[in-house]
């Protein structure tokens, strides 16, 4: 339930529609310092984890991207009371009145990450009714690892073409072996295990920084969790978990996009909050291209000074700490203008090279064989009308547009706003020419934002 307070200021948050587009003009060498917002892929699962508690939690550094708004809507549909201060990146979530365990198809189809409430709902209610998530353009994205392991923990799961019902009077602690270190399956089982009596062990778990941020939150709630090499997480169940306060980790994927924006325009950039030690392989590849990378004390803060003629490099994507699949497309945009031939192999998702044909429209020389792309650097890219097919592809096309001759018009920008919170403004502040044009029939979501002076002043961190 969204609480409406009389003396409120209504804050409109636009949701982009098909008529919207981003126009990108050739941009000068970007220069400057940029603040990072919190990680989308950490905050989504952390919001879901609040269902494990009964009370008011406060999250800071929360991005106002559309996926976050969608997760807020999901939580409200279950009965949570929510205050969101997008300008302050502050989110207050009260889960004491959560009474529902059904997630509608309408919500599920908008965002696959909705599946991440399954573990918490099973732990809280012993029930979870979830519309089947279905695939997306980057792959079939089955959830068999999630379901198989909930069944191993004792859940009875009925699957129909478009709906899942899960029931568990009591979940049982188990030794869970993941055949692939799936981020979502690790997170879902981990959350369910926190309130399951006994010790659950997850072997070959995902250890992405976003998973570790979730573990940090669960520990703050009172969970007993240890992480040991190689990638083994042990959870000793507890009776109850408490609401928390937490600042979401900076978004390494936003950091990667900004570093590449400086690299592709031949500029220089400083990201004071960036956590270099969560981006090692990516930074290594930027250095191999010839860009100068300076890392701050304890790995906090990254400066990139671009080289004029970057070299081609090759990489394959892999689970953390390998090269992140979510930076594959943006990196490919930069490699389109590098000296020589780069080979990029996408191993995490089976259909995540759709941005290639859009980059080819801009004059890129790329050949694809199965999940490998062979990119032969060219001297110039040319502006064109291109279509974003997923979140990270949208970033690649905006970066390419900044380095291209002539104008680029990108449609499908709901992907951009799903994954990024005002990244276009940060790029413009660095000197880029990137403009969002909102189409006529854009929907608007109204958030009750108490008048901070009168009701609840937003705390300054
Ligand atoms: C998370 O997706 C991220 N999303 C993705 O980011 C990211 O690309 C991905 O992890 C890999 O890092 C969020 O955190 C919300 P997986 P997730 O389970 O959890 C297969 C972005 O752009 N698999 O690690 O769905 C799956 O099909 C998004 O921000 C199964 O086969 O990823 C894929 O090929 C895109 N069965 C591989 O494992 C399962 O039950 C990795 O998927 C689960 C996964």
Notable characteristics:
disordered N terminus; alpha+beta; 4-stranded mixed β-sheet; binds ligand EPZ; single chain; 26 strands; 461 residues; disordered C terminus; 14 helices
Notes on the structure:
The protein is of the alpha+beta class and 461 residues long. It has helices at 40-49, 66-78, 105-110, 118-125, 144-152, 183-193, 209-221, 252-265, 280-289, 328-335, 355-361, 391-403, 414-419, 423-429, and strands at 8-15, 21-25, 31-33, 56-60, 81-85, 90-94, 102-103, 127-131, 156-159, 163-167, 175-177, 199-203, 224-228, 232-236, 245-247, 268-275, 292-295, 300-305, 315-316, 341-345, 365-369, 372-376, 385-387, 408-411, 433-437, 443-450. The strands form 7 sheets. Strands 23-24-2-25 form a 4-stranded mixed sheet. A 4-stranded mixed sheet has the order 3-16-18-17, with helices on one face. Bound molecules: ligand EPZ. Ligand EPZ binds next to helix 1, helix 5, helix 6 and helix 12.
Q: How would a crystallographer describe the biggest sheet?
A: 4 strands, mixed
Shape: globular
Share of β-strand residues: 25-35%
| Radius of gyration from the alpha-carbon trace, in angstroms | 22 Å
Task: Write a concise synopsis of the structure shown.
With 461 residues, the chain is α+β, with helices and mostly antiparallel strands. It has helices at residues 40-49, 66-78, 105-110, 118-125, 144-152, 183-193, 209-221, 252-265, 280-289, 328-335, 355-361, 391-403, 414-419, 423-429; strands spanning 8-15, 21-25, 31-33, 56-60, 81-85, 90-94, 102-103, 127-131, 156-159, 163-167, 175-177, 199-203, 224-228, 232-236, 245-247, 268-275, 292-295, 300-305, 315-316, 341-345, 365-369, 372-376, 385-387, 408-411, 433-437, 443-450.
